[in-house]
Amino acid sequence: MYRAMTWAMLDRGVDVDDAAAVEAAADAVQIVSGTDPLSPTIHVGSVDVAGPIRSDEVTAAVSAVSAVPAVRKTLVALQRDEVARAVQAGNGIVVEGRDITTVVLPDADLKVFITADPAVRAARRARQDVELGKDGVDVERTENALRERDAKDSSRQASPLAQADDAVVLDTTDLTLEQVIDRMAAMIADLDSP
Q: How confident is the model at residue 87 (pLDDT cuts 50, 70, 90)?
């Protein structure tokens, strides 16, 4: 959602370093995040932005946009509404984000702080970028950008990236995607066992 908001700011020509301008423009942005795990979607209005939100421009600007308190307030409310709808429909939901367990859903049934070595994260992101058809993927540059974003997000005033005290830490550095899913599924199953 924060990437979608960032894409919207860039698409509208808003200076992402001008918090007041971002706040003023954010009110007009309609973000629709599909929650079907088999077909996840993200739209700004009627525009499918699933691909564009992974651009270098969005990645470079997302920390600035996500640091604007009014943007955070709006998107936290939207995230909570999505969770409430899923729960009311009798569905569980997995929500990921940098402040989900500390701000958005501090009373979540299960909180997992997923981490990995920055070099491994960068290699994974580079593979995603190649799969999306990006040219000139540079793993070292990607790693530097990840470290910079982590530092910015950890030090921002509004909803900083932080591990909840009661979160389970899952280091995925040496795990495959399937292994991560298996471990998460086991944690969820443990919630349901007496």
A: confident
Rounded to the nearest 5°, which phi and psi values hold at 82? -60, -45
Q: Give me 165's structure tokens.
A: 């005290």
pLDDT tens per residue across span 108-122: 999 999 999 999 999
Residue type for position 30: Q
* Domains of the chain listed by start with CATH number: 2-192 (3.40.50.300)
Max CA separation in the chain (angstroms): 54
pTM of the model: 0.79
Give the tokens for residue 192.
């349901």
- For the chain, the C-alpha Rg in angstroms (whole number) is 17
What span, in angstroms and rounded, lies between the C-alpha atoms of 94 and 83?
A: 9
Cα separations (Å) of 133 from 43, 51, 84, 136, 183? 20, 10, 36, 10, 30
Q: What tokens does 38 get? A: 């088999």
